[in-house]
Amino acid sequence: MEEKGTISIHTENIFPIIKKFLYSDNEIFLRELVSNAVDAVQKIKRLAALGQYNGELGNPLVEVAVDADKKTITITDNGLGMTAEEIKKYINQVAFSGASEFVEKFKDAKDANEIIGKFGLGFYSAFMVSDLVEIQTLSYQDGAEPARWVCDGSTSFEISAGNRTTRGTEITLHINAESEEFLSKNKLEEILEKYGKFLPVPIKFGTRTEHVADGEDEEGKPKTVAVEVGNIINTTNPIWTKAPADLSDEEYLAFYKQLYPYAEDPLFWIHLNVDYPFNLTGVLYFPKVKNDFDMQRNKIKLFSRQVFITDEVKDIVPEFLMLLHGVIDSPDIPLNVSRSFLQADSNVKKINSYITKKVADKLQELFNKDRKGYEEKWGDIGLFVKYGLVSEEKFYDKAKDFALLTNTKNENYTLGEYHDKVKDFQTDKNGQVVYIYSTDPAKQDTFIQSANKKDYDVLLMNSAIDNHFISFLENKLEKTLLKRVDSSVADKLIEKDEAIESVLTEEQAKKVTDIFTKAITKPGMQVEVVGLNPEELPVTVTMDEFMRRMKEMAQMGGGMGLYGGMPDSYKVAINGNHKLIGKILLTDNEEEQGLLAKQAIDLALLAQGMLTGAELTAFVSRSVNLI
After folding, report:
1. Among 439, 461, 493, where does a domain finish?
2. How far apart are CA 29 and CA 26, in angstroms?
3. Same domain for 347 and 268
4. Which of 15, 87, 326, 510 could make an S-S bridge to 284, C-beta 3.0–4.6 Å?
5. For 262-267, what is the mean pLDDT?
6. Where are the transmembrane segments (predicted)?
């Protein structure tokens, strides 16, 4: 048997195109060929199970071998094998329709997977790294003869009698000069670990040393002997292929450690398993979410039939769920997947919605079953839930019932519960419920205590997402405002119909304004004499809530550049009812008036963390002299 011919691809330029367009992603050749070998092994097992093959199956195995001296990589399986006719059908007839269209469309292509996936070029990815590819194969069919196929990367091929004596296929790649890095055992093992770590058929790559029991020594103690065994690089039955009822918590945690060896234990996990209207399995873990979002992303690994595809799952998993860790496996997502495919595929959109629902259901279940335990975890998962509320409308519809607001007393409330808690005390004269919050309880303690004296509750909003979450709540909740606790004096945080009058006359107020204006050295300070509780501080420095928010958003790149460029502007509220103001007015000594005013202003600046450097040193020195 001998035959020569040309591969039916209707263009002489196809192999140079493959090499050029796929070269940047050339390691996928091993993924493609090993995946094909695994498929062949699984198919013979299925035929045997159906009674269509009665021969000896043997132990299913795919073996990868490298010979650096001969510059070859060999992938061998004991699967179906092929006849010469099947080689012609499956290897030679790469049926491109409109080759010129192909060349034109993909001449600027950057996504190798897009080309491979669109045109079924899995096997031909071998030519990215090879000058010559040889196939030796023997079909499982009765009476089949071994066949050999060889191609040098041109459109010419040769089929002849093969020398294989056992069922299966052996593909030998003669590595080209540009790809000799793949002749390194370490490099190949790294690729096999990446793409084949959980393939369903054992993948052997070289050998390793094992110490096995070998009787007892002269003293009766057990002894071992070193033996060389096949180095199987994969786990064929990862936990996502098993039923949740068959798995223990220890197994879930062990798998997590296998994926992320240096990570803290996760908080909890979700086992995904759906077969309609799409197939999807997987395990998603909730890590302890840190403030650094970027460190958390791209930790979900996407598989197709246990073959690793990518850890960039943005189009499959909603943006906020990118903070989760774990594995998703779906045969409905092709192995050769491209970003354009993901964005357009209807199954991907269904998967996206399904995962959002499963995550919301899990959180709701935890909240309902063990609210105390849920609240204890809130410090770790609150950031994640808030991110979901802000970014995903479908998630908000479910999460609004288990999202929590935490106050500075470390008490937790759902959105509905918190509204009921504060509405009676914190509704302004316009009927708006005002939520007061702190971003730094230690720094803002003076303001928090003043608010608490008025029976106001203060929320804690100090996570990386809270700047957006605050605006989100105002937009989402009816007739609700949020104000930072230090954005005004406590008496002015919530505007009421009743107001405390200042005891000062108009003339006295003007005199006080002049004294304090002269004592201020910082720019952007506007002095105002107001009537406050005599127990409040004599001077309070605040920045308007709106202006501060706009400037913070500008710093975060939120499109508020105009505000970011504006100078800081502060209100200096002088408590006309405080005894210090009366003391200042009673003295005729301008120097003493200025000294007391300066001391009161610096105290107010100190409360806001705005007193630093030489001014702080001067304040300390002045305080010592006043004692």
Report:
1. 493
2. 6
3. yes
4. 326
5. 89
6. none
Instruction: Report how far residue 309's alpha carbon sits from residue 339's, in angstroms, rounded to the nearest whole number.
Output: 12
Q: What is the DSSP letter of 163?
A: -
Tell me: the pLDDT tens digits for 219-241? 778 887 888 888 999 999 999 99
Cα–Cα distance between 477 and 433 in angstroms, integer? Answer: 10
> Token digits for 393?
């409308």
Q: Which amino acid is at 391?
A: S
* pLDDT of res. 312: 77
What residues contact 462, with CB distance under 8 A and at least 6 apart? 438, 439, 440, 441
Q: How confident is the model at residue 92 (pLDDT cuts 50, 70, 90)?
A: confident
Specify whether the backbone of 153 is left (phi greater than 0), alpha (psi in -120 to 50) or beta: left
Sorted by sequence, the CB contacts under 8 Å of residue 250 that are 6+ apart come out as: none
Phi/psi of residue 372, nearest 5 degrees: -60, -45
524 within domain boundaries: yes
Q: Which residue has the tokens 């990862």?
A: 238
Where are the extended beta strands (E) located within 155-202?
156-161, 168-175
Exposure on the CB side of residue 473, measured as CA atoms within 13 A: 26
Give 393: exposed, middle or buried? Use CB within 10 Å, 0-12, 13-18, 19+. exposed
Closest CA to 184 of 25, 28, 23, 66: 66
Pairing relation of β-strands 480-484 and 433-438?
Answer: parallel
Closest to 380 measured CA to CA, from 248, 263, 282:
263
Domain interval for residue 359: 240-373
Residues 67, 165, single domain; the answer is yes
For residue 369, what is the domain's CATH number?
Answer: 3.30.230.80
- Kind plus residue range of the DSSP H or E element containing 64: strand 62-67
Of 520, 508, 504, give the one whose Cα is nearest residue 597: 520
| Angle (CA) 328 332 336, round 5° | 85
Number of domains in the chain: 4
Q: Are the C-beta atoms of residues 114 and 343 closer than 8 Å to each other?
A: no
d(CA 445, CA 52): 78
Q: What is the pLDDT of residue 523?
A: 84
Dist CA 28 CA 25 (whole Å): 6
Tokens (6 digits) for 362? 């899990």
pLDDT bin (cut points 50, 70, 90) of residue 339 is: very low
Look at residue 435 and give its three-state secondary structure: strand
50 shares its domain with 190:
yes
Per-residue pLDDT band for 189 (boundaries 50, 70, 90) equals very high
